[in-house]
Write a structure and sequence with these properties.
alpha/beta, about 40% helix, about 15% strand
Length: about 450
């Protein structure tokens, strides 16, 4: 059971030293109890107290790292059932089924889905390597897959084949997804000491809980729970029950990330797999496995994931600065807008589509949209002029043409006063009109 602020306070040094960033030990303890700050922020806790409190204040759901290097991903670590309660912490990853007979074809498809959206790379993070009964062919598949640098999931319940494959994955931190009540002892013996997270499978939720409990008893703490049962309805119900047990009832035996193989829930039905993948992005799949994901399927799935796993308490922003578009140089016109990420990517996309070289100047507007920033005083003639002065824009760029958003045309007069010698140009209200506007402007 989670400790209350007073319980935590009793174990603090009670010196009110403020080194943790809070005025008193009690204030610090209350924040720790709320999950807003790490207990390790107190530099004066004894080792025993720190160990006790770290265990008691840890998230009810364990964080598991899969993959290595630049392709490492953290899963789990969640503290709430619903995003609006606080935020989700670690977004899910997608995997595609790959076999020894279709590796080249599948890898070509997987590589094709790789793009940036609102400053984040969106791609298929994992390969689910399906064992088809031939240990030699499976070993060759693992060798090829390792070269991709993606997270590897060894979908294999054969202890000998899994052990051999894991030997070939040294340094990759793959997931071994094939531990069942029937093969537990043999599989554990084959993969012991390799440092790979283990995926657990069972015929019912009760058996899955017993299996996880048994694995914990043997010292295994990096576990994932496969909820890909006989039907989509059961899988969804089990995913919700597991998350509720972990978050609401602090059942740490169920406090592990989940695996959902929608290709097993809807075999040979790609449309249904895509729909189920969207469902489990929202509730509560940490690794979602599909037969394939093409670009058309990736766009809505990855967009949904990005929206779900964005902190609702923090606006999505891009860094203030000058962004040259279409090969713009110091002589190209300057267009300005706010740092709200959605605004930036919508506007920059239209500017690129116009083909006109232009420098896009982003100022700090608090992460608000254009009209909201203007209403809040974050976007004004003063703020734009100040940014140009403080960043030496007039010295770095010869152009004296500044294009402002049409929705804040009211700033034109004040900007002309604050920026003598500059031509202030009002753009259309809607981004979709920018292409024609810029082509006419430069004609």
């Amino acid at each position: 059971m989670a400790l209350k602020g007073l319980d935590i306070f009793k174990l603090t040094p009670k010196t009110n030293c403020k080194e943790c960033g809070f005025p008193t030990c009690m204030a610090f303890s209350m924040k720790v109890a709320q999950g807003a700050v790490d207990i390790a922020k107190c530099p004066h806790l004894s080792a025993d107290a720190l160990a006790e409190l770290s265990e008691a204040t840890a998230p009810p759901m364990k964080t598991i790292t899969v993959g290595a290097g630049e392709c490492a991903h953290e899963l789990g670590g969640e503290t709430v059932l619903y995003r609006h309660e606080k935020t989700y912490v670690n977004r899910n990853i997608f995997a595609v089924n790959v076999t020894s007979s279709n590796f080249d074809e599948k890898w070509a498809q997987i590589k094709a889905v790789d793009y940036d959206r609102i400053g984040e790379r969106e791609y298929i993070e994992a390969l689910n390597l399906v064992y088809e009964g031939d240990a030699g062919a499976y070993a060759e598949l693992v060798k090829k897959a390792k070269e991709t640098g993606r997270v590897l999931i060894l979908d294999c319940d054969d202890p000998a084949a899994a052990g051999q494959a894991l030997e070939l994955c040294a340094g990759c931190v793959p997931v071994v997804n094939g531990i069942t009540p029937a093969n537990k002892d043999a599989m554990v013996a084959a993969v012991a000491g390799k440092g790979a997270p283990l995926g657990l499978k069972a015929g019912s939720l009760e058996e899955l809980h017993d299996l996880a409990e048994a694995m914990e008893g043997e010292g295994y703490k990096d576990l994932l729970l496969d909820v890909s049962t006989t039907s989509a309805k059961e899988a969804f119900a089990d995913a919700v029950k597991i998350r509720r047990a972990a978050i609401k009832k602090t059942d740490r035996t169920f406090g592990y990330p989940s695996i959902v193989d929608v290709s097993k829930l809807a075999p040979s039905d790609q449309n249904m797999q895509t729909a189920l993948a969207a469902l489990f992005v929202m509730r509560y799949g940490n690794i979602i496995i599909m037969d394939s994901i093409d670009y058309a399927e990736a766009l809505p799935l990855f967009g949904l994931r990005q929206n779900i796993y964005t902190d609702p308490q923090k606006p999505m922003t891009v860094d203030p600065g000058m962004y040259p578009i279409n090969g713009a140089d110091e002589n190209s016109p300057i267009a300005t807008t706010v740092d709200f990420a959605l605004t930036y990517f919508v506007v920059s996309g239209e500017l690129e589509r116009s083909g006109v070289p232009i420098n896009m100047m982003i100022t700090d507007a608090g992460g608000y949209s254009v009209l909201t920033a203007w209403a809040a005083g974050k976007l004004s003639a003063g703020s734009i002029a100040k940014y140009i002065e403080e960043n030496g824009i007039a010295d770095k760029y010869k152009s004296r043409q500044l294009i402002i958003p049409g929705k804040v045309a009211v700033l034109k007069g004040a900007l002309e006063e604050k920026l003598p010698g500059w031509e202030i140009i009002v753009a259309p209200n809607e981004a979709t009109d920018l292409v024609k506007f810029l082509k006419d402007f430069t004609a």
